[in-house]
Amino acid sequence: MTTIFERRRSPDSGLSRRELLKRGTVGAVLVIAGNAVISPDRAWGVETTALKPDTMATLIKLARDIYPHDKVPDRFYAIAVKGQDTKAGQDPAHRELIEVGVADLDARAGEGGYRGLGWEDDRVAILREVESTPFFQAVRGDLVVSFYNQKELWPHFGYEGESFSKGGYLKRGFDDIEWL
Amino acid sequence: MAAPYNLNDDSVVVIIGSGAGGGTLGNELAQKGIDVVILEAGARIEYEDFINDEWDSFAQLAWLDHRTTGGGWRVSKDFPNLPAWIVKAVGGTTTHWAGASLRIQEHEFKALSNYGKVEGANLLDWPITLAELEPYYSKAEDKMGVTRTHGIEGLPGNNNFKVFKAGADKLGYKECHTGRMAINSADRDDRMSCQQTGFCFQGCKWGAKWSTLYTEIPKGEATGRLEVRPNSHVVKIEHDASGKVTNVVYADKDGKLQSQKARIICVAGNSIESPRLLLNSASAKFPDGLANSSGQVGKNYMRHTTGSVYAVFEKPVHFYRGTTMAGIIQDEAGHDPSRGFVGGYEMETLALGVPFMAAFLDPGGWGRSFASAMDGYANTAGLWIVGEDMPQEQNAVKLHATLKDQYGMPIPDVWFTDHPNDVAMRNHAYKQGQALYEAVGATRAFPTPPYPSTHNLGTNRMSEKAQDGVVNKWGQTHDIKNLFVSDGSQFTTGAAENPTLTIVSLAIRQADYIADQMNAGSI
User: Of A14, B12, B177, B442, which alpha carbon lies 20 to 30 A from B365's?
Assistant: First the structure.
C-alpha cells in the first residue's frame, strides 16, 4: 500500500536541515530518503512499496509537466500518481512499464536526468517525443482522473462539487451573473 | 402491488429494457389491462441514491459492459471501449438524460424527399408524418411535463443560459429560450420542481426531471399488471417452427439462465443492445438474426452530429450551477443547403464538472494549453451541438468476431465514420458557437470533439417497404408479427432533435396498436 503522510514539523522528524544542505536539495526540490519522497518543507511525504522512490519523485515532476497548474502544490500531484506505485505492487509488468519509462526519460534528458532539466520547455520537448508510448499513455490516462478528481483540489478551479445537500443553487447563485 | 408472473405464462408481453421506450410502453400497456414483464439488465436504484459526483455516478449508472469500436470517429481512439454514454439501470438512460424534449420537424420525417439523394448516405423517408405523430407528441409532453407546452412555464435561466442568450442576441438569433424541458418548473405529477442543483446527468435526486424510474414504472406497477425484473440481462430471443417468437432467455441476478415465455416481445435495449440481441438470436430458420431479411439490422447507426463549444471569459460564470441543459437556440435547426450541408442543428447549453471537463475537453490533451483551459473553469460557459447526421450502411453495430461476454454471446463492435455532411455541419456549428461567445467577450474558445454517444439511433430502422428496414410504422418487425422494437433504434433518420420525446411518443402510439391487435386476435 502506498501511503501519503503528513509530517510533523518537529526538528527530530525526518532529515535535518544540515542533511538537506549536504544533499544539495534545498528549495523546491523533492527529497529522497529511504523508501520515501519528502517535500522540501517536510510537510508531507510519500512512501513507495514497489517503485523506486526516485522514480516516484520523477513521476510527481512528470505529472506537473503534464497538467501544469502553478498554484497547485506538489502534494496533489503526489496523491495523483501514488496509484502507480500501488498498481506496480500488484502487477510486475506495470512496475516494469513505469521504471523503464522513467529511466528512458532520464536517458533522454542526459546527465542530471529528467528532474535535472531546469526548464519545463526542455522537459516537455522530451515528453512530446514519448507521448504516444504506452508508458506516457498509462501515466496520463490515469492522471486525468486521479488528479482532477480530487475534491480538495476543486476549490482551486472554482468548482463547488456536490450541491444536493445544500438545496441546489436555486437560492445560492444559479443566476447571479452581473457582468453581462 | 407489482404483479409477479410465472416464467411459463405465455400470455404476457415481455419488454426488454425499461428506459424511455420500454418503461413508457410497459406502463401504457398495463394501464390498458395488459399483463407485462419488463426485463431490465441493470439494478433498481431509486433517485434518493443517485450521487452528485461525476465519476462515482458514472460507476453507479453507466453501461460498462465490454464493447469495441472501429471507424474514423475520434471516440474510437479516445474511448475505444466506450462508444456510448448510456445507462444500465431501471429507468435506462432517462435517469441520465438532460430533459430536452423537442418534436421532430415535418420536413425531417421526409428526409430523402426534402434533401434529395446524398452521396454515401442511406437516406429514407419515415413511413409516418408529423401530423400522425402530433397527438402522441401532445400526450407525451403532458405525461412528461414538458415546459412551454400545455401551459407549463419555462424554467428560469441560469448563468450559463444568460451568457448564451446574450450571445444569441448579438448574433441576431431569434429562437432562443430556456428550452422545452421535461423538468418541472413547478410541482407537478407528485414530483417537485427543479432546485437548480446542476447534476442532471447524474440522475436528478429531487425527481424533478422526468424518468421512467419514478413515473411510468411505479404507475404501471400500481395497476398490478406490470412486473419489472431488474438484473435480468437478456441473451437471446427464441421462436417456434412458424417463426413466431415464443420466449426470452435471460441471465438472472445470479447469472443463472432463465426463460420467460411471452405472447409478444418488445425490444427496447437502446440502439447498440437491441440490434445485438436480434443478431445474437440467429437460428437455423433465421441465420442472419431475427427480423433481418432486409439485412438492415445493426446498420445505419446514427449518433447525431455533435460537438461542444466552451469559452472562457474575463469574469466568473459558474456554469455548473443549475440545469445542465439550460437553454436552446433553434435558428439553425431548419434545412438550408446554402450553409453547405443538408439538415440542421440545435445549440443547447451544457456544463460539466471539473472531473468530466478534464476527461472530455480535449481527450488525450495535456500541457500548458490544456491546463490553462482548466484554470479558466470558473469563468467558462458552454454549449452542445446536436444536429442531424446521415445514416450510412457501413456505420453499424456488428457482432465481434471473437470476443464474447460472460454468457458466451458475441459483444457489440460499434463502427462509425462521419459523413462529409456531418463534418460540414459540425464545422459550421463550431464557427457559430465561437462567434456567439466572442460576441460577449470570450477571451478563448474551445471547439470540443463529440463525447461517447448518448443519442444512439437507427439500427433497426422503420420503413414503408420490408426491404428497406427492420420495422413498420408501428415498430412491428416486418418479418415477425409478434416481435416489436420500441426504442430509438426505430428511427429512420436522426433529425436534429434530442430523441427522447419521439421515443416516448412512439411508445404510446405502439401501445395503442399492440392493444388493438391483441383485441383483434391478430397477434
Answer: B442
